[in-house]
Amino acid sequence: MSKKSIVLLLGCFTLGGVAGYAVLEPRLGQIMATSLDRTDTLAGLESEMATFALPPILVPVSATNPVQQLRLELAIAAPPEYLKELESKAPLFTDVISQYVRSVEVSQIDDPGDIAELRTQLLRRLQTVSSPDLVREIYLTKFMIG
What family is it from (predicted)? Predict the structure, then answer.
């Protein structure tokens, strides 16, 4: 590429940047205010979440060694108006979690990085049997293999 082409390209990029700024500059205040409003709204949604703790779940993690068990305790985050519904679905959630954890090999959940994948899979499964509005997030409060 010749020097002339490079200078021409740089000139076009500069002109485009100046033109873009000239068009957006009068609206930058409005754009920033809207962005801040959205951030405040998201922060408000998170603070309005309630948590529901499921009863502890004990699952044998090895078919060859049934003494080795995974003790799993988790809490579900949901809007406060759904707490009664969460309570009524607790047995279903426990069953879904137990079934999934039984299908996972110990080697798949030994590494701390794998715990994030486990959380993601559990969240997806709980949202599938209920709804994404009901189960917003899950928190692993205890995770012990012994």
Answer: Belongs to the FliL family.
Per-residue pLDDT tens digits for 65-83: 667 788 899 999 999 999 9
Q: Who wins on pLDDT, 90 or 33?
A: 90
Let me know the angle formed at the C-alpha of 107 by 106 and 109, rounded to the nearest 5 degrees.
70
Q: DSSP H helical segments within 25-82, as ranges?
A: 28-47
DSSP lists the bridge partners of residue 140 as 74
From the number of C-beta atoms within 10 Å of its C-beta (0-12, 13-18, 19+), residue 10 rates as exposed
Identify residue 82 by its one-letter amino acid code: Y
pTM of the model: 0.64
**Is residue 92 within 8 Å of 129, Cβ to Cβ?**
yes
d(CA 140, CA 1): 56
Distance CA 143, CA 146 (A): 10
Q: What is the Cα–Cα distance from 21 to 32, expressed in whole angstroms?
A: 14
Helix/strand/coil percentages in the chain, nearest 5: 60, 20, 20
Instruction: For residue 76, give the 3-state DSSP assignment.
Output: strand
